[in-house]
Amino acid sequence: MSWIERLSECLTHVKGQYGLIINTEETGQTEVIVSEAQSEGVDLIAMATRRESALARGVLGSVTDRVLHSTSISILTLYSGEIHEFNRTSGGPKRVIVPPDGSTLSETAIQPAVEIAKAANAEIVFTEILRLPFFGVGVAGIEYGAGDYPGDYGIEVQKKEIPKYLQEFIDEAKMAGLNASASLRTGSPSQQIVEEASQIEDSIVVMGSHGAGGLKRWVVGSVADKVIRSAGQPVLVIPPTTG
Fold it and tell me: What residue numbers bound the domain in which 1 lies?
């Protein structure tokens, strides 16, 4: 029995229980996933992912990568090791991490994050990363550090302005009845987002994607790409809409 036959058998077994619509294809994974999602008018694509090597993270690009950069539909990625933990507890997240960076695209993730937190009765944490001059390229892409620089490069201004920026979102979330707070971290954006999410089990990261394309997408990768590959928690990516 081929793997696709085994998969079909497994899905058929749970079809009635969950009301699944099953369609199996053997080729063109990215194209089929995107086409099916668009034709069915779905709101969300859910995909499994795995932690990968530095080479895979930086260069190769997975099916998840290609789907992420080929659709304007939100994508939920799940690392296989965490799925059991979510089912074992409440079935939902206890903490929602959303990292706005001042851009309109990143802020598109705020409302979905608030709605998820409300539905799950979860805490929401608005996480911003202090932007430091980069000193090189490492496993996570461009890495950052304070170092010995001839000035603070606006760091002190950021420390004052970022809390003000996040406070607006905190106030709105609290008005919606949520337990909301801010977290200001320093370093590589992707690493810091992953570390923030790892503080408490059953966290979920909700973030916007800048939809980087071409060489930048496959060699450097966006922050969202790297968070997806490095996080041990679910990541919900809200792509920019196309029009």
Answer: 1-42
3-state secondary structure of 126: strand
List, for residues 66-86, the tens digit of each pLDDT value. 787 788 889 998 876 555 555
Structural domain total, the chain: 2
Report the distance separating Cα 113 and Cα 124, nearest Å. Answer: 8
Q: Clarify whether residues 191 and 232 are in a common domain.
A: yes
Residues 30 and 109 in one domain: no
110 shares its domain with 148: yes
Alpha helices in 132-209 (DSSP H): 155-175, 189-197
Look at the pTM and tell me if it is higher than 0.85. Answer: no
Tell me the one-letter amino acid at 63. V
Whether the CB-CB separation of 188 and 141 falls below 8 Å is answered with: yes
At 156-210, the pLDDT tens digits run 777 888 889 999 999 999 999 999 999 999 888 899 999 999 988 889 999 987 6
